Structures are given as structure tokens and as C-alpha cells.
């Protein structure tokens, strides 16, 4: 009986168990490895395609290695979100240099924008393109409105209608901007806009702000004609020009009628 127990506890049995475990692990790795192997070439192809697009459309300003030059800033470390915003809103490629890059027709397809974004992202770590669950609404609208009024309304107006800045610059209106591009603008801080990273505004805070702006687009004006939601200036102008003008006209008409 003791000899049988000794054979069961022989070191060779432990070695056999270890070898069996290695065989099983190797088999699992072999089964899963092809999926991972396929992902890398696809990404490298996307980056390579983006590099070609960059060199033929962007390198004249940003340099062949995207390190800057000829008036264009370095793009190393700006991340995919910055490229998706600038190119996806038609601000880049910049048609004419000016005080501020303005929104225009988009020059690239969605696939080409993804390729350009992947190439710039490969140059250095930076903000990535946000996921759909953060940019499609569904957040706290009331909290988003409060955050927007505290952090954004001084430039973009309380309802996102835009406003003038110094030296010929302006804060664009946000009522016709997608949730993804609004989120990316907060992440990257284009033009004169400050960067709202995840320390300043958490991803949930940004989602709430996007949800508030999406609600503003569809919300009706309870007071009647919104006058572009530009605040008291157009309302006062309307009162002085139209309202008082009508009162003067009525007074003149009554005076003529009495005469």
C-alpha cells in the first residue's frame, strides 16, 4: 500500500500535469491567436492609408512628419479626436488662412477621416474619438444646462447660438453641430476654446452638456418667437424698431383721422 502511494506522488506525475497544462494553454493560444494577428495588419493598413492622405493633403502646412512647419502646428499628440473634429467639420484642410478656421464642406469620406485619425493617433498619445454612448444624448439635461451656463455660455450664448469674441474671432453656434463633434471640441479645445479634459469635466458631465444642447435643438420656445435665442439685445431692438414704430404709426394715423 505504501509503495502504491509513493508511485502516485512521484515527481514525474507532477511534471506530466504541468506538461498537460502547457499543451492546453498552447492549444487555446493557437485557437485565439489568428484573431489578434488579423487586427494588427488591419490597423497598420489604416495608418498607412492615413499617412498617404496626410502627405498629399496636409503635409504642406504640418510637415511630412506632422511635426509642424509652414504655418501649421505640430500634430504629434493631438489625438484622433482633434483630427475627427477638424476634418469632420470641414475646417481642415484649411482653404484660406485667416483669423479663424471656419466650418465648411467636408472634403473627405468617413473612411478617409478614420484613416487620417488613425495615422495622427499613431504619432503620439492623445484624446481618442468618443464612443456613441457619450455623444448620442441620454444624459441629465438639467445638469447639462447648468454646466453649459457655467462653462460655455459666456462665449456660445445661453442657448448655444454663438457669439462674438475679440480680434475678429467668434464662438460658433452649436445648434447644428453633432453630439460627437461637440464632445470632441470639449476634449481638444479648437481655436480659442479651452480644453475641458476629464479632470475639468468628467465624461458624464460632457455627456450631460451634449444632451442639453440636443434638447435645445428640438425644444420649442414657450414665449413665442425666439428671435434666434440671442438674448436681450435683439429683443430690445425689436421693441424699439417694430413696437415703438407701430405705436408712432398708429398715433400719426389717429391724428390724421381726427383732423
From TrEMBL:
Residues bound to heme c 1: 58, 61-62
Highest rank taxon of the organism: Bacteria
Keyword Nuclease: no
Signal peptide: none
InterPro entries, per database record: bc1_cytC-su (IPR009152), Cyt_c-like_dom (IPR009056), Cyt_c-like_dom_sf (IPR036909), Cytochrome_c_Oxidase_Subunit (IPR050597)
Reactions performed catalytically: a quinol + 2 Fe(III)-[cytochrome c](out) = a quinone + 2 Fe(II)-[cytochrome c](out) + 2 H(+)(out)
Annotated GO MF terms: heme binding; iron ion binding; quinol-cytochrome-c reductase activity
Subcellular location(s) of the protein: Cell membrane
Membrane topology reported for the UniProt record: Multi-pass membrane protein
Annotated Pfam families: Cytochrom_C, Cytochrome_CBB3
GO cellular component, one term: plasma membrane
Domain (Cytochrome c): residue spans on this chain: 45-124, 139-217
Gene3D superfamilies linked: Cytochrome c-like domain
Keywords noted in UniProt: Cell membrane, Electron transport, Heme, Iron, Membrane, Metal-binding, Repeat, Respiratory chain, Translocase, Transmembrane, Transmembrane helix, Transport
EC number: 7.1.1.8
PANTHER family (alphabetical): CBB3-TYPE CYTOCHROME C OXIDASE SUBUNIT FIXP, CYTOCHROME BC1 COMPLEX CYTOCHROME C SUBUNIT
Official protein name in the record: Cytochrome bc1 complex cytochrome c subunit
Lineage, top ranks: Bacteria, Bacillati, Actinomycetota, Actinomycetes, Micrococcales
